[in-house]
Amino acid sequence: MNNSTSAANGNDNKKFKGDRPPCSPSRVLHLRKIPCDVTEAEVISLGLPFGKVTNLLMLKGKSQAFLEMASEEAAVTMINYYTPVTPHLRSQPVYIQYSNHRELKTDNLPNQARAQAALQAVSAVQSGNLSLPGATSNEGTLLPGQSPVLRIIIENLFYPVTLEVLHQIFSKFGTVLKIITFTKNNQFQALLQYADPVNAQYAKMALDGQNIYNACCTLRIDFSKLTSLNVKYNNDKSRDFTRLDLPTGDGQPSLEPPMAAAFGAPGIMSSPYAGAAGFAPAIAFPQAAGLSVSAVPGALGPLTLTSSAVSGRMAIPGASGIPGNSVLLVTNLNPDFITPHGLFILFGVYGDVHRVKIMFNKKENALVQMADASQAQIAMNHLSGQRLYGKVLRATLSKHQAVQLPREGQEDQGLTKDFSNSPLHRFKKPGSKNFQNIFPPSATLHLSNIPPSVTMDDLKNLFTEAGCSVKAFKFFQKDRKMALIQLGSVEEAIQALIELHNHDLGENHHLRVSFSKSTI
């Protein structure tokens, strides 16, 4: 394998200057320039946000590694994500491309025990069987009933790190429910609660030891003994993203201004340093901008997230709506085109929709009840502000905690529908891979469940007849059941998804349509 590897991957450095013809997509990825002291778990963590990692081969002498993903689709998503945002390990840039190999055969190779142990630990986390020991001795053991709460200490705090920055970085690994920041033992610390312990484990593996900014603000991450956080106020120091109704706590004597919150203790960059030569002054992150951390001069690669990669819009304290509410109020709809079923399909991309009610007296408004509060938050973040049927849709949390069905005999014109038993829910199965494929609306749609008899022209015609302009189309090379189709605009794609998701293609195949992270 080693010989064929170097041959297949042209170990001659001159070829890596970009003149090498790119390989066609493969689920095996070739990583170059990895630091020599990097652990197997750290390499695996690069692939984790995109899907299951099924094999790993480390060639430490050559500073290279091969990572095998469970599917080509996961590998394509990973390459597309890391193309504009170079990943880093131990603060060094790492280069990733498709390998010529279609799979990794490592059974007879020496020194594979550590890689297999790391893979086993990760798959244990992914399958929810958390009792296996951790990937390597310093990863900590994965215990049954592992906490979803992380304790984060930030060392070398030369820039202020705000709650928003933490939210943006950690959201890459799952839904962040609550964050509390505080100063203890002269160190800036935070407690951060995920919706699921698995997300906490991923984030710890990927982020522990990373710097937020160049050569400073180093993250030290452990599991907390707490299993849940109790947030009383939504402000600079604490935030409960499931409860928008909490007071800001202004006038509480314990509350310091934002800078004091970041540097609340003497000894951590107290005033003499504030404008010291060589350090930028505090950087203000606009609260709701979903700002990319890369806007900070010298920000480091692994934590520089593009704003679309993170549903990073902050929940603004003081907005009306019920704590942890799963009902959304959707306004500014086009009453001539919108139906309960259309809203069910669209919001169903981001969570399981249980009920929809279009308002009888004001048909441009509707209530959409999701399965839970975090799905409502994700749907709101992704869909509010998108154009649909010529109008800009707005979504906020509703004052209502449930959508009431009409009483029998009550005139409703079919405006209220119960979808709680629909077979079309995408997120019914716990741990479904659909959770990893939640992307913002985009002009490129991912199609799947295509029967063998259906051709490219059939699918192009289907979308053209639905009123779309088809710009590009591509079947997945390895799996003709899947394809990407690029339409004229995001609005067209949203409308096509509403109209054609679950479209009957014959042979008992119903088309599955999602937004894609890739472009053609």
UniProtKB/TrEMBL annotation:
GO cellular component: nucleus
GO terms, biological process: erythrocyte maturation; mRNA processing; RNA splicing
Compositionally skewed regions (Polar residues) per UniProt: 1-11
Molecular function terms from GO: RNA binding
Pfam families in the cross-refs: RRM_10 (PF22976), RRM_5 (PF13893), RRM_8 (PF11835)
Keywords from the named record: Acetylation, Differentiation, Erythrocyte maturation, Isopeptide bond, mRNA processing, mRNA splicing, Phosphoprotein, Repeat, Repressor, RNA-binding, Ubl conjugation
Region (Disordered): 1-24, 403-423
UniProt cross-references to CDD domains, sorted A to Z: RRM1_ROD1, RRM2_PTBP1_like
InterPro entries: HnRNP-L/PTB, HNRNPL_RRM, Nucleotide-bd_a/b_plait_sf, PTBP1-like_RRM2, RBD_domain_sf, ROD1_RRM1, RRM_dom
SUPFAM superfamilies, sorted: RNA-binding domain, RBD (SSF54928)
Span of domain RRM: 27-111, 150-226, 326-400, 443-518
Function text: RNA-binding protein that mediates pre-mRNA alternative splicing regulation. Plays a role in the regulation of cell proliferation, differentiation and migration. Positive regulator of EPO-dependent erythropoiesis. Participates in cell differentiation regulation by repressing tissue-specific exons. Promotes Fas exon 6 skipping. Binds RNA, preferentially to both poly(G) and poly(U).
Complexes and interactors: Interacts with THBS4 (via the acidic amphipathic C-terminus).
Protein name, per record: Polypyrimidine tract-binding protein 3
Organism: Rattus norvegicus
